[in-house]
């Protein structure tokens, strides 16, 4: 048993699955759907991690998939902030970069077969905190500045083609 109570709490917490609670909903379908998908993937990762080294290959494969989806999501938010001139976009984009750094560290540990329970806990919390703090600040701005879905899609398509 860990002597670090915070880490121990993390190990307990990591066993719990996430769900997109009402207070995490932004009211913007495209972003809520992506958050929901990411949560499903995080939960799947947790289940795989519980089965331990026997699932190592599947964990790594799924983690790659998760990173691709998370990257796509960040790309969409970054694009919206740029298109609509969100005033705090630099800070928000820097938070996305920090989250990816956290995920990359986790990926390195997964590849080396280290225990990642504590790291999974921090990653999960970083995700929730980002949605509740940063995305929640962005949402009213996006809703106010909402343009037609067609315009958004066209802008996304242009950005996705470039990446
Ligand atoms: Fe975000
Ligand atoms: Fe987000």
Automatic annotation (TrEMBL):
One Gene Ontology term of the molecular function aspect: metal ion binding
- Which residues are in the Hemerythrin-like domain? 27-142
Q: Which UniProt keywords apply?
A: Iron, Metal-binding
Membrane-traversing stretches: none
Which family is it part of? Belongs to the hemerythrin family.
Q: What is this protein called?
A: Hemerythrin-like domain-containing protein
């Amino acid at each position: 048993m860990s002597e670090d109570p915070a880490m121990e709490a993390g190990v307990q917490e990591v066993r719990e699955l996430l769900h997109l609670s009402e207070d995490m909903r932004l009211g913007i379908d495209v972003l809520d759907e992506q958050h929901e998908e990411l949560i499903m993937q995080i939960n799947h990762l947790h289940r795989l991690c519980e089965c331990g080294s026997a699932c190592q290959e599947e964990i790594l494969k799924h983690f790659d998939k998760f990173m691709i989806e998370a990257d796509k999501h960040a790309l969409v938010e970054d694009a919206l902030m740029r298109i609509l001139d969100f005033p705090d976009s630099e800070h928000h984009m820097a938070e996305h970069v920090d989250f990816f750094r956290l995920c990359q560290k986790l990926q390195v540990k997964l590849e080396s077969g280290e225990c990642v329970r504590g790291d999974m806990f921090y990653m999960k919390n970083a995700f929730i905190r980002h949605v509740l703090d940063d995305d929640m600040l962005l949402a009213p701005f996006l809703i106010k500045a909402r343009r037609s879905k067609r315009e958004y899609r066209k802008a996304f398509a242009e950005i996705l083609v470039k990446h």
